[in-house]
Design brief:
The chain is of the alpha+beta class and 95 residues long. 43% of the residues lie in helices and 33% in strands. Strands 2-3-1-4 form a 4-stranded antiparallel sheet.
């Protein structure tokens, strides 16, 4: 399993959904689980993005599918980045 950072921006339609159904956030997390993705941490943030999610997924293809599936609904835009723990980076650089 790889770790990924998902930066999400709500569209105007997404903000309307969040305002009327804030529990939708947790429903989407269950949808991610159906793709085999585990939400490790999730934050609502201020700034250019609305949410930061740290997830574990089987592979990048799964993350691509999630980004397309969720983005096609018109409520969210997602930027995804693979992530590596700093200790793992240090070990890989020592090899």
């Amino acid at each position: 399993m790889g770790r990924y950072i998902l930066l999400s921006k709500l569209t105007p339609q997404g903000r309307t959904t969040l305002k009327t159904r804030p529990e939708r956030i947790k429903e989407v997390n269950k949808e991610l689980e159906a793709f085999g993705v585990e939400v490790i941490e999730q934050y609502a943030v201020l700034g250019p993005y609305d949410f930061v999610n740290i997830v574990e997924a089987p592979d990048s293809d799964t993350i691509f599918r999630i980004a397309v599936e969720l983005g096609s609904r018109g409520t969210i835009e997602i930027m995804s980045m693979p992530a590596m723990a700093v200790d793992d980076l240090i070990e890989s650089l020592k090899r």
